[in-house]
């Protein structure tokens, strides 16, 4: 949840499924006909407006998710039941436990997550998307829990994410003795670029003024690793490198860059294009995305009139007038998803909606019909349900206007109810592919440890390390003093188990290198037999 302010991929995957399967049934919203607009389209419901406390006027975009609701929904439970059939109940429970271990709290206790984007973070994300590099954006977050949580555990996990040393092997550089059985002139390779410096190299010590202030045990700076405690407007918060974190109460956490966090703490009833749009969108929706369109429209206005060509220019001219953009998604009501574009007035909305319907929706219908009629486009029997699902989505897609809002809506397909059971074969295939990928990754980890052991032998008169501890805490062969480590930690396999190392060995006759093995998919040490993966047996 807190790596650079983002949720872990495992949780996001479950939430993505949840957007198609949870939430309470909402009352029907005002339709276009009710408000003098187009029949057949309606604005998303807003039975319970989204709480915009702590959303300052610095933010231009927001994504609202409901993890606990998603994970308890029938749709996700049905999907997890299919997953259990393939991987077992223990595996699913382990996935939840792993998420809890990573973020410090059970995801089923996270009631709401609001990810907020300010202009600077938006520009950084755009630059990275376009391949321009730059610093990874740090979005702000409001996390609301459905009960009081262990704040210290969560803060410790945040501290680990932002203060952990970079991962990677530390590989020695040497022109020392040869491997057993090799010729002396065969071993003097150029050191790889990732080689470490010789243990005799002097360490550069930063100036005292440049060194960060270490936490003082029991004092103001004690607590989670490498954090500094501060206060603003009566609220205490902690700073972890680029991120600042504050529990404003026992159920609400804020995290952002420090300057933004201070503004969030004091924000209560801010009036901005983003908060105004959020308040018109109901918290009953499984997924809500809202943004102030000003950054987009400002960008479009900088292009010359003929920059996009005759086909696209009309759409760009309409887009330049958009004030806010909103997206809602859910399965409980009659609409699967809606896109709402706020325009300056009803005439602008009517014109843009007509353009989208004619140039977008109608053309999509025609293109889809052509694809289905193509004799080469054959769909296997097991995927026919996807065709029916696509039929309902494409046929029901409609654009219209409600007052000054353009609304593009997708109705809820009836075939969606069958999706969890139909996912069974796909989950089974994914499980098989994942197992194969994990075995390959385990072999690569074993090979990497084997290479490190050989490099140790180069530095230690052709003697392999007697255990992995020799790689973690080596001694200089000349002085006997501690040397720079070859490894930062004991290598693990894709299943999270530590690799096994043995030297000398009795597993194979005339062994020329250490025995290294993984417990394999069943995560049980069978000494290299069974489904264990080793460097001396071919699987």
Walk me through the structure.
The chain has 539 residues and is an alpha+beta fold. It has two domains: 9-163 and 222-422, no CATH class; 426-534, Glycoprotein, Type 4 Pilin (2-Layer Sandwich), CATH 3.30.700. Helix content is 34%, strand content 16%. It is built from 15 helices and 15 strands. The protein has a twelve-stranded antiparallel β-sheet with strand order 4-5-6-7-3-2-1-8-9-10-12-11, with helices on both faces. A three-stranded antiparallel β-sheet has the order 13-14-15, covered by helices on one side. A hairpin with a 2-residue loop joins strand 11 and strand 12. The two termini are 37 Å apart.
How many beta-strand runs?
15
Strand order of the largest sheet: 4-5-6-7-3-2-1-8-9-10-12-11
CA(first)-CA(last) distance: 37 Å
* Total discrete domains: 2
Major sheet size, sense and barrel closure: 12 strands, antiparallel
The proportion of strand residues reads: 15-25%
Furnish the topology, listing elements before pairings:
Blueprint: H1 9-18, E1 59-65, H2 67-71, H3 74-87, H4 89-103, E2 110-118, H5 119-129, E3 140-145, H6 151-163, E4 228-232, E5 235-240, E6 243-249, E7 252-256, H7 258-266, H8 273-278, E8 287-292, H9 294-301, H10 313-319, E9 324-329, E10 335-342, H11 346-373, H12 384-396, E11 398-402, E12 405-411, H13 419-422, H14 424-459, H15 468-472, E13 500-502, E14 515-518, E15 533-534
Antiparallel strand pairs: 1-2, 1-8, 2-3, 3-7, 4-5, 5-6, 6-7, 8-9, 9-10, 10-12, 11-12, 13-14, 14-15
């Amino acid at each position: 949840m807190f790596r650079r302010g983002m949720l872990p991929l495992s949780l996001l995957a479950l939430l993505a499924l949840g957007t198609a399967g949870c939430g309470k049934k909402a009352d029907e919203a005002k339709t276009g006909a009710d408000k003098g607009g187009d029949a057949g389209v309606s604005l998303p419901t807003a039975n319970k407006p989204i709480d915009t406390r702590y959303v300052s006027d610095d933010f231009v975009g927001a994504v609202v998710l409901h993890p606990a609701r998603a994970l308890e929904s029938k749709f996700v439970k049905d999907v997890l039941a299919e997953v259990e059939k393939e991987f077992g109940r223990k595996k699913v429970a382990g996935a939840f436990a792993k998420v809890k271990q990573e973020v410090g709290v059970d995801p089923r206790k996270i009631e709401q997550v609001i990810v907020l984007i300010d202009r600077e973070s938006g520009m950084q994300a755009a630059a990275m998307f376009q391949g321009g590099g730059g610093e990874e954006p740090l979005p702000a977050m409001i996390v609301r829990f459905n009960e009081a949580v262990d704040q210290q555990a969560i803060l410790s996990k945040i501290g680990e994410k932002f203060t952990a040393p970079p991962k990677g092997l530390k590989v020695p550089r040497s022109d020392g003795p040869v491997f057993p059985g090799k010729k002396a002139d065969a071993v003097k390779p150029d050191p790889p670029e990732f080689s470490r410096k010789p243990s005799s190299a002097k360490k550069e010590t930063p100036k005292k003024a440049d060194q960060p202030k270490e936490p003082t045990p029991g004092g103001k700076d004690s607590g989670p690793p490498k954090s500094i405690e501060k206060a603003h407007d009566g609220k205490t918060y902690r700073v972890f490198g680029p991120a600042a974190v504050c529990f404003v109460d026992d159920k609400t956490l804020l995290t952002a860059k420090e300057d933004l966090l201070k503004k969030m703490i004091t924000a209560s009833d801010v009036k901005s294009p983003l908060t105004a749009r959020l308040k018109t969108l109901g918290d009953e929706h499984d997924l809500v995305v809202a943004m102030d369109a000003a950054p987009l429209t400002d960008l479009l206005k900088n292009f010359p009139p003929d920059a996009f060509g005759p086909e696209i220019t009309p759409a760009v001219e309409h887009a330049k007038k958009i004030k806010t953009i909103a997206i809602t998604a859910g399965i409980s009501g009659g609409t699967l998803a809606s896109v709402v574009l706020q325009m300056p007035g009803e005439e602008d909305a009517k014109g843009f909606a007509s353009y989208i319907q004619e140039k977008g929706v109608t053309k999509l219908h025609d293109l889809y019909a052509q694809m289905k009629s193509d004799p080469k486009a054959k769909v296997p029997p097991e995927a026919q349900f996807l065709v029916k699902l696509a039929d309902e989505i494409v046929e029901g897609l409609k654009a219209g206007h409600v007052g000054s809002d353009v609304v593009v809506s997708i109705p809820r397909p009836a075939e969606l109810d069958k999706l969890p059971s139909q996912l069974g074969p796909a989950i089974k295939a994914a499980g098989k592919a994942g197992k194969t990928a994990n075995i390959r990754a385990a072999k690569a980890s074993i090979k990497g440890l084997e290479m490190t052991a050989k490099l140790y032998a180069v530095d230690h008169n052709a003697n392999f390390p007697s255990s992995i501890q020799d790689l973690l805490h080596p001694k200089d062969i000349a002085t006997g003093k501690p040397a720079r480590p070859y490894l930062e930690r004991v290598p693990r396999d894709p299943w999270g188990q530590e690799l096994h190392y043995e030297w000398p060995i009795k597993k194979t006759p005339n062994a020329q290198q250490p025995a290294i093995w993984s417990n394999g998919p069943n995560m049980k040490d069978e000494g290299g037999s069974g489904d264990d993966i080793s460097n001396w047996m071919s699987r």
